[in-house]
């Protein structure tokens, strides 16, 4: 049976340019992910070095020296989380798993894909679009795994006396009924990683999208 | 007309000969498609055991970070927009046929 498919994707990565020998990089907050990362194992951390140096990495990596432009993936023992920060162990303190960051080094922190970061739902399994608070609207889909709970997409938006609810409802109605099935492929409602935001969601000022799979 | 997605994953070089080595699902049984890891995407189906309280899952292995392309290609096959065929081979290890760029393997799981 032909049906439209609605695609949602969280922002996949954040990039920081180190300003000094810093170890902490803030990844959670309104200006960061849509979701809050709670464990360092949820992210991949890579460091791209500005300059060649002789003592930058612990023995678990290159053994110390790095080239300019070289990228090293921080292993699980070399990273941790402290509230809203990813912390990269300093090589001086951890000679095995640590990495010493210098000004100009580029740190890329990527979400490791899981169900909660990227999903595609059938339009014909949409149950409802409902307001959850004055600043959030929830799209509910029939559970994809047989659970009695629904799969949900929670959209956060400004509060303008309900204007946003109607804009979002209109948009979801449009994408569910858009005659795109003859062309196949998916309708991208929210792909923050690639800055593709559905017209109606952009108009409603949606700032966050959170997936919850039952 | 109902359409169907076809998968094989024999554990040896021969034809599928055991549970979870071959499956075909009607496209109407697809419930959602998710990223599962950096190199895998899962397709959830209404379970074949009839309980409706779990899901059957086909996991496609693909190029790192290629979820959106895989999802797009899958939906294209579900809606059969290319050849209008009701029988869509997605991943057929038995015959070395992988009809989505970057997909190299699949795994089939079911509570049945």
In short:
The complex is a heterodimer of chains A (214) and B (112). In chain A, 9% of the residues lie in helices and 34% in strands.
Task: Characterise this structure.
The complex is a heterodimer of chains A (214) and B (112). Chain A is mainly β and 214 residues long. Chain A has two helices and 15 strands. In chain A, the strands form four sheets. Chain A has a four-stranded mixed sheet with strand order 9-1-13-14. In chain A, strands 2-8-4-5 form a four-stranded antiparallel sheet, with no helix packed on it. In chain A, strands 10-11-12-15 form a four-stranded antiparallel sheet, covered by helices on one side. Chain A is elongated and about 60 Å long. Chain A starts with a strand and ends with a strand. The mean pLDDT of chain A is 91. Helices cover 11% and strands 38% of the residues of chain B. Chain B is built from one helix and eight strands; from the N terminus they run βββββαβββ. A four-stranded mixed sheet of chain B has the order 2-1-6-7, covered by helices on one side. A four-stranded antiparallel sheet of chain B has the order 3-4-5-8, covered by helices on one side. The radius of gyration of chain B is 13 Å and the shape is globular. The model of chain B has no long low-confidence stretch (mean pLDDT 90). The interface between A and B is medium-sized, with 35 and 34 residues. β9 of chain A pairs antiparallel with β3 of chain B.
